[in-house]
Design a protein that fits this description.
With about 400 residues, the protein is an alpha/beta fold. It is about 45% helix and about 20% strand.
Amino acid sequence: MNALAATTRNFRLASRLLGLDSKLEKSLLIPFREIKVECTIPKDDGSLVSFIGFRIQHDNARGPMKGGIRFHPEVEPDEVNALAQLMTWKTAVADIPYGGAKGGIGCDPRELSVTELERLTRVFTQKIHDLIGPQTDVPAPDMGTNAQTMAWILDEYSKFHGHTPAVVTGKPIDLGGSLGREAATGLGVVYAAKALLAEYGKSISNMKFAIQGFGNVGAWAAVFIHEQGGKVVSVSDITGAVTNPDGLDIPALMKHRENTLSMNTFPGGESMDPNQLLVSDCDVLIPSALGGVLNKENAADVKAKFIIEAANHPTDPEADEILSKRGVVVLPDIYANCGGVTVSYFEWVQNIQGFMWDEEKVRKELKKYMMKSFNEIKAMCNTHNCSLRMGAFALGVNRVARATLLRGWE
């Protein structure tokens, strides 16, 4: 089941749980606006190349639409649509005043030079600048993009609209970015894990963790888990995987990977098949790479007791059912990885106010939002006698539905 079908399925189940009117359900599901643009740029060698860019603006009932921009070869309308819809429910679960959006360009950023990436980003911004903005739609980094990409968008947008730092989040600190934004999603994952484990009388310090994906989110989650005494026993990225049953030295691993660009050669652990990480021996599994990695083929072999979804849509619905029957507790992505968009909200607030926060305040506020959302999800689960995923979806969908009805249909 692809990401759009799975997301729509979860939405419809939550809608039935809440008893929503069929007309309202249909209205909530249909995107507000779908944008598709051609982006043609000269390459460094003088030849022309064209890419297709997308921006799906799903819902704005609760505020400006919010969502990342990804540069990836597999970017296509269904995926972007699913991720935009997820952002609508995610921002509602986090209880921040945003709707949902997502964007992307179908390209491989590894095959483009820095100057080519800048040209592509600027052309894309030129094509959509009148459809984004601080009170309309606020992009952020995603797969294949970063703070530098946001800096180019800010600069290009400002050529049309004047200096507008709040048009994007995840910017460099020197251009109005927020302290703590880079680590925010990983830190939010750890706050979410602490809240979940506490429900079962457990703590991070006496658990073994396996992390699939050692990019920004997975690496920061590993750092914070290591700092709090948890054992990160296995990690993987596109270069390979490494394991140590006594726990990996995460600072040493990060330094090694930075120097060698390789996970397999780390001397503090043994190389392992990356495909085996998902079914390796651990207490807590944190998928933080691509979607759909847990499926009906491997779900029955998962040894973890808890799964914290740091990636978007890492668990297929078929895998969800298998894991549930086996008693594996899954903390869903629309809550577990909302730390990034929450601190993006903080950045947006700081930009609008022109008053910047220190990192201690950012972390304090993030923890408060993460704990509050977890308690509200648990309350929804108790009310409807449902899983954490359905509790989170019901919480988010209910908030968007209420906002839509309060605003009126005319």
